[in-house]
Amino acid sequence: MKKNIKWGIIGVGKIAEKFATDLKSVKNAQLHAVASSSSLERAQDFANRYNAPFAYDSYENIFQTPDLDAIYIATPHTSHADNTLLCLKHKIPVLCEKPFAMNLKQVQEMVESARKNDTFLMEAMWTRFIPAINKTLELIKEGAIGQVRNIQADFGFNAPFLPEKRLLNPNLGGGALLDIGIYPAYLSLLILGYPSEVKAISNFGSTGIDETTSFILDFKNEATANLSCTLRSRTRTEALIYGEKGYIHIEGRFMEAKKITLYVTDQKPVKFNFPRKTFGYNFEIEEVNECLRAGKKESDKMPLTMSVKLISLLDEIREKAGIFYDGID
């Protein structure tokens, strides 16, 4: 029988709610402990709703939990590095929400700590484990659309003006690029690799964060990617991958897609459907669980080298677009 993986969660916001909900659908896994820095009452309420036996009012105290196998970090971006390093110091495997950290320096420190402590670490880029994305990669590898020449992807929604909340708060790492632009950036990195040239421009809001960022990536004059993200309007949030023989349409929202369509010149379109009842976080949970059972220290599908490349790309886009964070950059 497979080992039952007992999870802890640091941070009890909206994304933690989705993670905990999907965790219920994963076999041989359970929520074991939660920690909130705001209050014990909030942690206990979360624990009660998701049947976790342990709740704490500080992140440090969660390491008192017996038989804790892994921790999911669901705090604001600016806390990811510190929270991850704390877990790794206690040699507890970590799944840290994206973006992994605020910049390359922080990510490098996290990676070094994971290797020094011989402890599992993975960025929670759930998109990598979504079946529709895996099928897209399979079709590209098979040569279904020929050599990829262009990727177009967007992510946008109309964010309410709540300047004290994370999304619009620069002190919490807010802004369109790090929160949602990371998905188009990751998709291009996954399919085309690291670009040879980056061009980017942002429009900034009254709180100082980038509300809209558009970026064009060139890949050694062999392919391009036209990508964008915005907090000012709802977009189709889809992806189109164009090759020499056809293209693949990943329906919105592409980062968690349930449907893709293959269009090949002079052939009927082929649709692929991947229905599910979960939000989609269960797939990354299952990946971590299998890695832990196998004794791995990182995922083959989302290795630490990919997280280093991703944050490097985000840093470069930020530099070109003029996106800076006081006290961090």
UniProtKB/TrEMBL annotation:
Family the UniProt entry places it in: Belongs to the Gfo/Idh/MocA family.
SUPFAM superfamilies named among the record's database cross-references: Glyceraldehyde-3-phosphate dehydrogenase-like, C-terminal domain, NAD(P)-binding Rossmann-fold domains
Source species, domain of life: Bacteria
Organism in which the protein naturally occurs: Emticicia oligotrophica (strain DSM 17448 / CIP 109782 / MTCC 6937 / GPTSA100-15)
Domain Gfo/Idh/MocA-like oxidoreductase N-terminal: 5-122
Keywords in alphabetical order: Oxidoreductase
Coiled coil: none
Lineage of origin: Bacteria, Pseudomonadati, Bacteroidota, Cytophagia, Cytophagales
Stretches assigned to the GFO/IDH/MocA-like oxidoreductase domain: 137-248
Name under which the protein is recorded: Oxidoreductase domain protein
Listed Pfam families: GFO_IDH_MocA, GFO_IDH_MocA_C3
